[in-house]
């Protein structure tokens, strides 16, 4: 369930654009107004504001926001205003460009492939081609180590069926095939990749459930017990993103908030990506994991406009 | 009424791609029972003398007519159909037919644009409640890895080519081809990845470098690896591929699957590459495509084919 709160009567994109213009151009940037407006608009509404702002003022609002707002708040709001496919394509490009991408970086790709809709993944692939003059698959090929390439390529190439159609016989046989691969420590088999990449999400959840019932242990635990390497860690992320994305994102948020330095980028990324999808569930998971509410954790570890913006999005601030 | 000529004409009306409806109406429509009896007795090509003393229609020929009469219906229906639905149904047909039809899967996955292939994937989900790659991952045969990856591709279609990488990949292919006895390249992750993720322009560069470095066309070296050969040809030279498919359809010993390609190629390529295919056909086989169609096709089916081609020629 989303935590993004919309006003009962949403102002027109023209009204929003004008108020934002004033907030951006006046004496001292009015952060409050910017957060107040943009923090209470969904993706469709934000897109209309962007288009209207461009039409009226002949400038890109993202550009204006980035100039006017400094630091992590500026980045977060610019990120919030991007079209999700372009946003995610740019995120992947940045991730891969960094070189020596480990699991913490590559999980971004898994999130896009496994924790969002098939249409969104397809849109990211299309955006990637437009923006970077090569396909997402080619980028992964050139930047990701070969042991992880096959799995990631399979995951990003899929265009899964999006209805709830489950075949229990397939669940049974897929669970058996996965079990065999785990037992034989052959997790790089084509079959493993095909099962995880091509089956629809509902089918896979049924398969994972079947696995737990038949083999008395959740599949991701079985994988982690069978050894430890990058492939297994990645597979764990894959399964979590398919089966219980709220757990994965709660983990990502927890990791970004722990340690001396808050990882502002990962925190913003995880929250902004899920605010309109399943933030409430993520907050519940976060509390179960850490015995402290996400709201309190964000308050403790962040400050200023950045904090206000995140709090608005997660519904902790009106 | 001119029985010998009529019989010959009528025999022709039943022997080709499609049937000559007008001729059948103009001749048969006028016959009485004695003409029909005469025709049956004097056309052993279609009728056998049964032991119980009547002329029986040859089962094999009835089976042929069952395929020839609906050719016009098929081409009309396919022509009107949305390209996405058309491709999705072709894919489904190929998957149902099994390994002998994998070439059709390769054809669709490789000759369509990225957006067209995506459209076919969407239509497939609507029509058959599954994704193509899900079904493909359960196909039999060593081509499976290649096929799953081909139907899942969304290739970059811009003009940028990394010449260095293309040259490197030409070498990778050459090594794989040379080691064919140790490992079939079609099961090599690296080879499959090159063929299924690179842009068509990039692969054309790879083919060019292969020729430069090794002095041969890569399809000569891929002669025994039909699926790989077809994949590359569909990606880099679809006109030559379609031209060959058409020529195969015209051969005397062509089976129904091969003959169906005539409808399929003309319909699916009519708004795409038809002009280039016509030119290539002319170059390869020294006879204009329209001429060939006039020779072997009949009736409404022939007229429809010719009018589709004439739109672009």
Automatic annotation (TrEMBL), chain A:
Ca(2+) binds at residues 26, 28, 299, 302. Transmembrane segments: none annotated. This is Annexin. InterPro entries: Annexin, Annexin_repeat, Annexin_sf, AnnexinD_plant. Gene3D superfamilies: Annexin (1.10.220.10). GO terms for biological process: response to cold; response to heat; response to salt stress; response to water deprivation. One of its GO terms (cellular component) is cytoplasm. Keywords: Annexin, Calcium, Calcium/phospholipid-binding, Metal-binding, Repeat. It comes from Vitis rotundifolia (Muscadine grape). One of its GO terms (molecular function) is phosphatidylserine binding.
TrEMBL record, chain B:
Keywords: Annexin, Calcium, Calcium/phospholipid-binding, Metal-binding, Repeat. The keyword Cytoplasm does not apply. One of its GO terms (biological process) is response to salt stress. Transmembrane segments: none annotated. Pfam families: Annexin (PF00191). InterPro entries: Annexin (IPR001464), Annexin_repeat (IPR018502), Annexin_sf (IPR037104). GO terms for molecular function: calcium ion binding; calcium-dependent phospholipid binding; phosphatidylserine binding. GO terms for cellular component: cytoplasm; plasma membrane. It comes from the Eukaryota. This is Annexin D4.
């Amino acid at each position: 369930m989303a935590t993004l709160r919309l006003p009962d009567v949403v102002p027109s994109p023209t009204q929003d654009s004008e108020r934002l213009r004033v907030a951006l151009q006046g004496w001292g940037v009015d952060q409050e107004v910017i957060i107040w407006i943009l923090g209470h608009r969904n993706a469709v509404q934000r897109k209309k504001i962007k288009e209207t702002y461009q039409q009226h003022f002949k400038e890109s609002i993202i550009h204006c926001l980035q100039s006017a707002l400094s630091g992590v708040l500026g980045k977060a709001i610019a990120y919030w205003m991007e079209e999700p496919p372009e946003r995610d394509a740019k995120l992947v490009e940045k991730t891969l460009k960094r070189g020596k991408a480990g699991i913490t970086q590559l999980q971004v790709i898994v999130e896009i492939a496994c924790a969002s809709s098939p249409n969104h993944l397809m849109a990211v692939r299309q955006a990637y081609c437009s923006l970077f003059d090569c396909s997402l698959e080619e980028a992964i090929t050139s930047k990701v180590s070969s042991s992880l390439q096959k799995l990631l390529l399979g995951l990003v190439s899929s265009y899964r069926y999006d209805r709830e159609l489950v075949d229990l016989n397939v669940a049974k046989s897929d669970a058996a095939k996965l079990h065999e691969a785990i037992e034989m420590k052959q997790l790089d088999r084509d079959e493993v990749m095909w099962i995880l990449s091509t089956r629809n999400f509902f089918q896979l959840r049924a398969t994972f459930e079947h696995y737990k019932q038949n083999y008395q242990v959740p599949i991701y635990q079985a994988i982690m017990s069978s050894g430890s390497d990058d492939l297994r860690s990645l597979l764990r992320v894959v399964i979590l993103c398919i089966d219980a994305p709220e757990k994965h994102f709660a983990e990502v948020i927890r990791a970004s908030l722990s340690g001396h330095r808050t990882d502002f980028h990962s925190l913003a990324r995880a929250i902004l990506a899920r605010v309109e999808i399943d933030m409430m569930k993520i907050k519940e998971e976060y509390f179960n994991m850490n015995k402290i509410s996400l709201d309190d954790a964000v308050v403790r570890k962040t400050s200023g406009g950045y904090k206000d913006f995140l709090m608005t999005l997660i519904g902790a601030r009106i | 009424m001119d029985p010998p000529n009529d019989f010959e004409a009528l025999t022709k009306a039943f022997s080709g791609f499609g049937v000559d409806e007008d001729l059948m109406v103009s001749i048969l429509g006028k016959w009485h029972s004695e003409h029909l009896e005469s025709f049956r007795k004097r056309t052993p090509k279609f009728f056998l003398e049964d032991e119980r003393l009547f002329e029986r229609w040859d089962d094999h020929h009835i089976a042929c007519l069952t395929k020839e009469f609906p050719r016009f219906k098929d081409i009309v229906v396919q022509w009107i159909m949305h390209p996405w639905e058309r491709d999705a149904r072709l894919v489904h047909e190929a998957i149902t037919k099994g390994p002998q039809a994998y070439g059709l899967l390769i054809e669709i996955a490789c000759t369509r644009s990225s957006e067209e292939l995506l459209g076919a994937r969407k239509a497939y989900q609507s029509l058959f409640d599954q994704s193509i790659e899900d079904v493909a991952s359960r196909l039999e045969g060593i081509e499976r890895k290649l096929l799953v990856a081909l139907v899942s591709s969304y290739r970059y279609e811009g003009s940028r080519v990394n010449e260095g990488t293309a040259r490197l990949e030409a070498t990778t292919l050459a090594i794989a081809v040379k080691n064919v006895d140790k490992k079939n390249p079609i099961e090599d992750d690296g080879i499959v990845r090159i063929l299924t993720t690179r842009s068509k322009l990039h692969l054309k560069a790879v083919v060019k470098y292969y020729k430069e470095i090794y002095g041969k066309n890569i399809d000569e070296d891929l002669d025994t690896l039909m699926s790989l050969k077809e994949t590359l040809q569909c990606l880099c030279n679809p006109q030559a591929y379609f031209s060959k498919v058409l020529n195969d359809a015209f051969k005397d010993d062509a089976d129904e699957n091969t003959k169906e390609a005539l409808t399929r190629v003309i319909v699916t390529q009519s708004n795409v590459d038809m002009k280039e295919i016509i030119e290539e056909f002319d170059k390869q086989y020294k006879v204009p495509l329209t001429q060939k169609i006039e020779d072997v096709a009949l009736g409404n089916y022939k007229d429809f084919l010719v009018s589709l081609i004439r739109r672009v020629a």
